[in-house]
Amino acid sequence: MLTRREFVKLVALGSATLLLGCIRNVKPVQTPAETATPTEYRTEFVLGYGRDHRLKGGKWGIGFFPKIHVLERLVEYDLKKDEFIPCLAKRWEVEKNGKIITFELNRGIKFSDGTELKADAVKFTVEWLANNHPLGQETFEGADVVDDYTVSIRYKDEGFFNLAKMAEFHMSIMSPKSVKPEGDPKGNFVWPIGSGCFKAVDYKEEQYAVYEPNPYWYDRFGLKPKFKRFVVKFIKDEDTRVMALKGGQVDAISDFIHGGSDYTPRNQLSVLRSMGFNVFKRNIPLTWIIAFNYRKEPFNDVKLRKAVDLAINRYEVVKIFDNQVLPANTLFIEDAPGVKEAKAQGVIYEFKPDEAKSIVEENGYEGLSVDMIVDKNQSDQILVAQLIQQKLADIGLKVKLEVLESGAYRQRRDAGEYDMRLYYIGGTDRRFYLRMFWRFYPGQKWSAYVSDRTGELCKKILKEFDEEKRKKYLVEFYKAIHDEHGVVPLYFDIMTAVTAKDVVADYYHMFHYPNGIPFGEPLFYYVGVRA
Amino acid sequence: MKKYLIRRILQIFPTLFGVSLLSFSLLYLFPGDPAEFVAQIRYGVEPSPQVVEEVRRELGLDKPFLVNYFHWLSHVIRGDFGVSWTEGEPVSKLIMQRLPASAELFFTTFAISIAFAMILGIVSAVHKDRAIDHFCRIFSLLGISIPSFWLGLILIWIFSVRLHLLPAFGYDGLKHLILPVLTWSFSFMAIKTRFVRSCLLEALSQDYVIVAKAKGLKERVIVFRHALRNALIPIITYFSLSIHHLIIGSVMVEVVFSWPGLGSLLVESVFRRDYPVVQALVLISGVVFVFVNLIVDLLYVVIDPRVRFGD
Asked: What is the average pLDDT value for chain B, to the nearest integer?
C-alpha cells in the first residue's frame, strides 16, 4: 500500500515524464567491481569548460586551452628549479645578451597533419606573431633559418626575458598551414595546426570544440590515447558546470587555464570529493592582492599601506574559499624562485591588528574613508572585499566598497579613480616572469606597483641570465615590495580539474608532460572514461 | 482610417532616425577615447599618441560627428554594421550566428507565456477571490519574485541531476530548449497573468457587462465576446512591449544554460567596449521595437472599431 506522500511523488514524476515527452537514456553507474574489462574505455571524453576556445583566432589568438593541448612551445618552464626545459627545441644558444637566441629543434616531431616540424615553421610563427599578435609585436624583430633544424630568433630588446617569454602560451609554435595564404606571415589565421597532444577537428563558437588525439604526439611519447574524441562543452555558469558533472553530462570540469577566473567554485571542491568525484588541485604562482592607488593620497603613504597590510588576517580570507586555497604569507608560493630564501630573511606578511591600529592612530588616519572598487563579475572577490572592509574598520579605516559592472570597473581602474582594488600577480608557472613584467616593470599598463627600487630590480631580474644572480635580485625584489608594502598579498590561487568516478586520471599526468616536464595547467592527454 | 494608417506609418521615420542617432552616439557618449581603445586592442600595450592619432584617422574619428554618422548610416542601410573591434569579424555575421538561438528561445517562450498568461489571467478574473484565483495570484507572485538564475539552477538540479531527464546546458535541439524556456516563461508569464487578470476584471465591471448579464447572456459569451475583446487593447500593447526581450531579456537564462544568444553577445560586447556590435544591437533592438509597435497600432484597427471609424 502506498502512503499519500509516495503516491504524490509517483504522480508528479509520471506527469513530468509524460509532459516533457522525452526520457534520457540513463547511463548505468558502474562500480569498478562491475566493470568486466577495466582497460576498455568509451570513445568520447566530455569536458565542461567555462570559456570559449576561440579556435578561429582573435585579438590574442586561439584560447589558452588549445594553445596548451594543440600547440607546443620551444621551451617549457620548471618553476621549482627556475629552469627552462627543452620541448620542441633540443638546445639553444644565447648571443648578444639575449638579443639573438638560436634554437636547435628536436628531429622527427610532426604536426598533426603529418608534416615535419622544421625551422621554417618556427620562423613563420615568429614572423606571424610579430605581425599579428600584441606580444609578438613588442617582442620579435624577426627570425632566420640556419638550417632545417636550426633557427635564430632576433628580439627587439636584450635580456633573459626573451627566453622566458618562449614558454608563454602566446609563443606556441604553429604550422604555416594554420593561415591563409599558407605560410604568409601576414596571412589570416584559419585553424590551429600544431604538434601537441590533440588536433582540433570541429568547433562551434560559444558551444563546443572537438579534438582528436594527435597520433604523432602519442607515438613520440609511446602512449596510446584512451579516447577517440575529446569534446569540450562551453558552460559559462560555474554552478551549471558543477551540475552538468553531477548529472553525468560531462566527464570532467576544469578551471579556465589562464587562472583566476571561470573556475570551479572552491566551496564545491570538498563536496564533490565527498560525493566520490576526483579532485585534482595544484598551487600556482598566482597571488591575489590588494593593489593601491599608490601615486595619490592617502595610499602614497607607506605607513598607511603598512597598516592595511598588518590588518588583514589571511587565514580568514581563505575561509571564503573553504580553505581550498592557501593564505599568502609570502608574495608568491614557496615553489616560486627566491621565495623560500626571502622568507628565511624574514620577508613574511603577518597579521598584527594592534600594530596596524597604532599606525592609523599615530598618523592621524583614524576615521579616514577610502574607496575600494570590485568587479561585480567576480563574486568571490566581493566577499573578500567585504572581509577587508570589516578588517579595516577594526583598525579605524572606513572602506567605501563599490561593486561595479565590469565595464564600469575597468573605466574607474584605468582612470585611476579608486584607492584600493583587488588584483592578481603571477599566473600559471609559465607566466611567472611575464606577469613580473606586466605588474612590476616601469611603465606598464596593467601594473600593480612600481617604485624606483622595485622597478630597477624588476629590470635586473628580467635581464639576468645567470640563475644565482637572478635569484638574488628576486629576493631583493620581494624584500623591497615588502618594505614598501607596495601590494598586500591575500591568497594563492589554485588550478583544478574534477573528474567523474568512472574517469581514469591521476595527478602526475594531469600536471606533467609524459617526459616529466611540470605543467601548471591541467592536461587531458592521459584521461579516459571506463566503458 | 486611412489618415490614421498614413499618419502612423509616417511617424516611424523620425523615430527610426532618433534610434539610429542614439545608437551611433553611444560611441561618443561612453567615457574614454575610442581611438585609444582600438589602438590598445590592436597593439596590446599603452599606445603612443602618434599611434592613437593614426587609428583615429583610420577610423575616421577625426571627422565631424555628423559626417561620421551619415557615413555609418549609409552603410547600415545596406546591412553593413562594420567590423567588430575585438573579433575582427563583420558585425552582421556575429549577429546572424546568434540570432537563430535567440529567436528560438524568445518566440517559444513568448508563445507559451502568452498562452498560459491568457488562460490563467482569464480563469483568475472569472473566478475572482476563489481558490483558483488565489492559486493563480500566488503563482504570479512567485514568478515575479523568483530570480531566473535561481529557478534555472533549481530546474537543472531536478531535471538533470536528480531525474536525468533533460540536459543541463547547451543549444542542440528540442530537449535543450525545454529548461531555458520553462525558466524564462515562469517569470515572463507571471507579470502578464496579473495584467490580463486586472484588465479583464476592469472590463467585467463595466456597465455593458451588467447589461449583458441582465439580458441573460451566457457567461462565456459575456467574457469572451464582450469583456475580453475590450480588454485586449492594453493586453496586446503590453505584450508587444516585451519584444525587446528578444535581444536583452534572456541574458540570465543564456548564461545559466550556456545558450548562445544575442543577450550574452550584447553584454560581452559592452564589457569589451566593442562599440560596433553594441551600436548594431541597440539599433536592431530599437528598429524591431518600432516596427512591432507599428504592427500593434495597425492591429488596433482590426480589434477596436473606434480606431477604425476615427472615434
From this structure: 86
What are A192-210's pLDDT values in tens digits?
999 999 999 999 988 999 9
Residue pairs spanning A and B at CB distance below 8 A: 115
Spell A450-477 as b/e; 16+ CB within 10 A means b.
bbebbbbbbbbbbbbeeeeebbbbbbbb
* pLDDT per position as a tens digit, B159-174: 999 999 999 999 988 9
Q: A114 to chain B, minimum CA–CA distance in Å?
A: 30
- Dist. CA A264–CA A496, nearest whole Å: 7
Q: Helix (H, G, I), strand (E, B), or coil: what is residue B258?
A: coil
DSSP character at residue A26? P
Q: What is the pTM of this model?
A: 0.84
Which stretch of A160-174, A477-491, B23-37 has the lowest confidence by average pLDDT? B23-37
Return all residues near B131 (Cβ < 8 A) that are at least 6 apart: none
A155 sits in the region (left: phi over 0; alpha: psi -120 to 50; else beta) called beta
Name the residue among B46, B258, B273 with its Cβ closest to that of A235: B258
| Interatomic CA distance for residues B131 and B69, integer angstroms | 58
Calculate how close chain B gets to A508, using CA atoms only, in Å: 30
DSSP-derived secondary structure for A472-484: HHHHHHHHHHHHH
**Residue A152's closest CA among A117, A120, A115, A113?**
A120
* Cβ-nearest to B175 among A22, A59, A234: A22
Alpha-carbon distance B226 to nearest alpha carbon in chain A (angstroms): 34
Give B3 or A455, the one with higher predicted confidence.
A455
The helix, strand and coil proportions of chain B, stated in percent and rounded to the nearest 5, come to: 80, 0, 20
Instruction: Give chain A's mean pLDDT.
Output: 91
Chain A positions touching B170 (Cβ under 8 A) are: 207-208, 233, 235
Which of B258, B270, B275 is the mutation pick for testing A, counting most A CBs within 10 A? B258
CB–CB contact A13 B163 (8 Å):
yes
How far separated are the first and last CA of chain B, in Å rounded?
10
3-state secondary structure B60-75: CCCCCHHHHHHHHHHH
* Contact yes or no for A247 and B31 at CB 8 A: no
What is the least distance, in Å, from the CA of A132 to any CA of chain B? 9
User: What is the chain A residue with the closest CA to B265?
Assistant: A206
Question: What mean pLDDT is predicted for residues A313-341?
Answer: 97
Q: Do B41 and A59 touch (CB under 8 A)?
A: yes
Q: 3-state secondary structure string, A338-396?
A: CHHHHHHCCCCCCCCHHHHHHHHHHCCCCCCEEEEEEECCCHHHHHHHHHHHHHHHHCC
Contact B258 A236 (CB under 8 A): yes
Q: Tell me which chain A residues have a C-beta less than 8 angstroms from the C-beta of B31.
A: 411, 415
Least Cα separation, residue A527 to chain B (angstroms): 23
Digit-coded pLDDT (tens) for A122-180: 999 999 999 988 889 889 999 999 999 999 999 999 999 999 999 999 999 999 999 99
Is the CB of B255 less than 8 angstroms away from the CB of A237?
A: yes
Q: What percent of chain A has pLDDT over 70?
A: 92
**Torsion sign (Cα): A322, A326, A327, A331:** negative
Which residues of chain B lie closer than 8 angstroms to A246, CB-CB?
Answer: 161
A 10 A CB-CB count for A421 gives: 23
CA-wise closest residue to B281 among B293, B295, B294, B269: B269
Q: How confident is the model at residue A8 (pLDDT cuts 50, 70, 90)?
A: very low
Give yes or no for a cis peptide into A298 (omega within 30° of 0).
yes
Residues of A in contact with B178 (CB under 8 A): 20
- Residue A308 contacts by C-beta under 8 Å, 6 or more apart in sequence? A290, A292, A356, A392, A397, A420, A485, A488
Inter-chain touch B86–A244, beta carbons under 8 Å: no
